[in-house]
Structure formats: C-alpha cells, structure tokens
Amino acid sequence: MAVNIAIDGPAGAGKSTIAKKVSKELGFIYVDTGALYRTVGLNVLRQGKDTRSADDVVPTLDGLRVSLRFVNGEQRVFLGEEDVSEAIRQNEVSMAASNVSAIPKVREFLFSLQRNIAAENNCIMDGRDIGTVVLPDARIKIYLTASAEARAQRRYKELVEKGQEVVFDDILKEIELRDYQDTHREIAPLKKADDAVLVDTTELDLEGSVEYMLKVIKERL
Ligand code: DC
Predict the structure, then answer these.
(1) Which end of the chain has fewer CB atoms < 10 Å from its terminal CB, N or C?
(2) What contacts 162, CB < 8 A, 6 or more positions away?
(3) Whose C-alpha lies nearest to ligand 1, atom 5?
C-alpha cells in the first residue's frame, strides 16, 4: 500500500517549499492540492465570473478537466491541455482559489482526483483538509504553521524576487483574510487533525524547517 504523508496549514507557512525538499529526500512525489483550487479559480476569473458566487462557479465545473502530471518528479497542473502551473501563481488567483474552495461542489469535484493519486503513489500531499478529510488514514499527519507576520514576510520576499510590485501591508492583510476564510468556511475548514504533529516554523529558516520535518517523519515511518 502507498505511504501517504499529509501536510496541512495556512497560506505561506512554507508547506510547498519544505514538502518539495522532504519528498525528494524520501523519494516520494509531492502533491500540491492548492494548485487544483487555483486552477478552478483561474478558470472562473478567465470567464469573467464571480469567484464568490456558487451560481457562477458551479456551471464552470461542467466538462472542466483539471489534471496533475509529474515530470521528473515535479508537479505540473493542467486546465484541459494547457499547462497553467505558472499562470495560477499570479497574486489575484490566490484569493480566487480561497473563494472557490468554500463552495462544496468544487471540493467534491476535486476530491477523487486527490484520493486516486494518493492511493497509487507514495506521496506527501499538502493542502488545508488533507489530514482531516482527503486522507484521514494518512500514515503521518503534520500541521505546519508560522505567525501571520512571518508568513507575510516570506510571501513578500518571494513576490519581490519574482519582480512583482507589492506592498507588505497588503500581503499581510490578504494572508489574514485568507486565514479567516479558510478556517471559518462551513465545509472542510482548515484545522489541525487531532492526530497531527504541530510544527511551527516562525523561528526556523528553510534549512532548519526541512531538517526538523525530516526528523519528525523519519521517527514515524
Ligand atoms: O495552498 P495554496 O495557498 O496554493 O491554496 C490556495 C487556496 O486553495 C487556499 O486559500 C484554500 C484552498 N485550498 C483548500 O481549500 N484545500 C486544499 N486542500 C488546498 C487549498
């Protein structure tokens, strides 16, 4: 049976950066489920519809094809035949993803895709509801977090390095708003699973976080 490691936590906690490195070390694939919600959000934005409105969003799911492919162990996400792995990283897509993710039909639409990948592959899967809903029987569950300020600081640096013009306070506000939305939605809200290990990276740099995470995982594998 495939070995699954679930990592959940708020935006900007370093889940993807850390999980990518840890999965390489373990020889597992890394599955970023946020990319799926981002792809649904991107598609709604492109159609000029309201990402907050279920009446607008649900019809866009009809016939929609979202898939993940792994090239040299690296995840690429496809909207139909279009590789949207870069397009979904635009800043406005983050909020769109959070908005559509609160709509039950969207979660239902993406559920089996995530389950099937986990059934067939040794993987680290990250998201908001992986340990609680998608993979409740995952071998190891980790809840990865850091203070909102630390997370905003990291996101700010990342966007500036990509050449985007951003204001720190806007990033912080957006992170706080996304935290609120992701933890307060009715369906599959972000929360620590009872059996998840809490890892707080506020005081850790990337290297320290990876090291700590590997230790937590290897102790339990
Ligand atoms: O991980 P991310 O920031 O790329 O995710 C974008 C949004 O998608 C996030 O604000 C909430 C939603 N999401 C979710 O609801 N469930 C997941 N498993 C992953 C992401």
Answers:
(1) N
(2) none
(3) 34
Cα–Cα distance for residue pair 120/15, rounded to 1 Å: 22
Residue 106 Cβ < 6 Å to ligand 1: no
Contact 95, 85 (CB under 8 A): no
Residue spans per domain, the chain: 4-220
Cβ density class 157-192: b for 16+ within 10 Å, e for less: eeeeeeeeeeeeeebbebbbebbebbeebeebebeb
What dihedral do alpha carbons 204, 208, 212, 213 form, nearest 10°?
90
Q: Write down the architecture of domain 4-220 according to CATH.
A: 3-Layer(aba) Sandwich (3.40)
Residue with tokens 């936590």: 9
The length of the chain is 221
Dist. CA 152 → ligand 1 center (Å): 16
Question: What is residue 103's three-state secondary structure?
Answer: coil
Q: Which residues are bridge partners to 147 per DSSP? A: none
What predicted TM-score, i.e. pTM, was given to this entire model?
0.94
Tell me the best of 93, 108, 128 to mutate to test the pocket of ligand 1, counting ligand atoms within 8 Å of each CB and taking the most: 128
